[in-house]
Write a structure and sequence with these properties.
The complex is a heterodimer. Helices cover 17% and strands 28% of the residues of chain A. Chain A is an alpha+beta fold. The termini of chain A are far apart. By secondary structure, chain B is an all-alpha fold. In chain B, 61% of the residues lie in helices and 0% in strands. Classes of the chains: A alpha+beta, B mainly alpha.
Chain lengths: 194, 297
Amino acid sequence: MTRRHAFTIAAQGIGGLAGAAIVLPAVGFAVAPIFHRSKERWEAVGPLDDFVVDTYRQVVFTETEGVGDAGKTTAYVRKGSKELGENPNEIVAISNRCAHLGCPVRFVEAAGNFICPCHGGVYDFQGRRIGGPPVRPLDQFQARVRNGQVELGPRYSVTSQLEPVRARDPGEFTGGVWEYLYPPRPSTFPPPSG
Amino acid sequence: MRIPDSIVPAPLRRPAKPGEGGNDKGQAPADLKTSPPERPSDVQRVSDRAKEAPADVLAWVDQRAGASGFLTGMLYRKVPKGTNWFYTLGSATLFAFIVQAVTGVFLAMFYTPSPTQAYASIAHINNDVFLGQFVHGMHKWGASVMVILIFLHMGRTFFFGAYKYPRELNWVIGVVLLILTMMMALTGYLLPFDQRSFWASIVAINLTGTGPVVGPYLADFLRAGAELGGTTLARFYAIHMLLIPGAIIALIGAHLYLVVKLGTTAPPWVRAGKPKAAAPVSQLDAGTEGNGASPAR
């Protein structure tokens, strides 16, 4: 190796280090939110007696803090139904975020279905897809009862068999091989067990 | 319009066409020898000097920048026969971009990229700021105009076959510019932060998330988290006004450099001339010193 060659390598190496010292922190700063999970958040949405078994009650609560109305989301809440094979002591809280592309769905009392205004997605009473383009059932929120108040917590997604999995974005399939093609993200909460 | 020679320094003047001008060979006219002109008065000399001031200033700059060779080459380059209005679509797109840049700078003076204040700041621009609604409207409609023009420009390039050798690299750069323009349209759409922008951005980010394996992470990157929030807005704003405009300006520079370097193509309906129509290279170089036959044009 000649002296000139050695100096060339050294100069390029130092230049590379200097460049990395600038670029890596900037890139890390930009991608860090992917690996950040915000604090688990529970919000009371009303006394247990307000909710019934055979229809939903619409509640609005804050999912993302610090952004005003934009951080609020809507859930449809009812008690578990024995006829549908659910635990009567549990609370079912279905997200109004369509599993197709995230438009807000509405529970239509007369039909007993959730209907999405954007592209015609239709879901049954339990949130299973029965029509239109959505790729999976509606998301749900973890729910619990504290001091007679129903509290809603983190979002989770479900498979077509309504088994809980970590929250996925709309448009992403759940269950089976899809759990690997749409891997769970570190920014989401683990699903409720059982 | 022709700029008068008096304000253009000699190196920047339009080069003489072959066969015209430049014949004196440094010889003074005969009458100057027999009756030399009178010495001009002081007033005459000062005014002559003043008339040359603009040319002197340009010459001063050019002596130091040495840009005249490049500029004459660029401004007086030959264009092929059949060049028509369709060839202005690229310049029109560039003009639309400049409009977006200028109006965007002025909108940024009043806009607040905060989720609680963005909508109010846009309302303030539209309702209170002098000409605010006009400038905002120019930016909003100009965005659509730019997207339409860039597609027309691409269509012209495609249908005229102007993407072929040796211009493939310029086509590739153009495609990157098209993608960057679409990203500008996407990120700009969220900024008013009204219902339409909010839900349109949600849909756009969810579309991104449907890409297998990397999609969910890309969506998290765009949102800066699991949900669309305040950081998303700030992020889109920074991408919209800092990141992409810089990249677009740099790539437009490369795009134009290649256009000037490679020249433009004739439309496909213009036939190549007969061999005799093109002058041999030796004659082009010879200029006026040839045998008097000017190159066929």
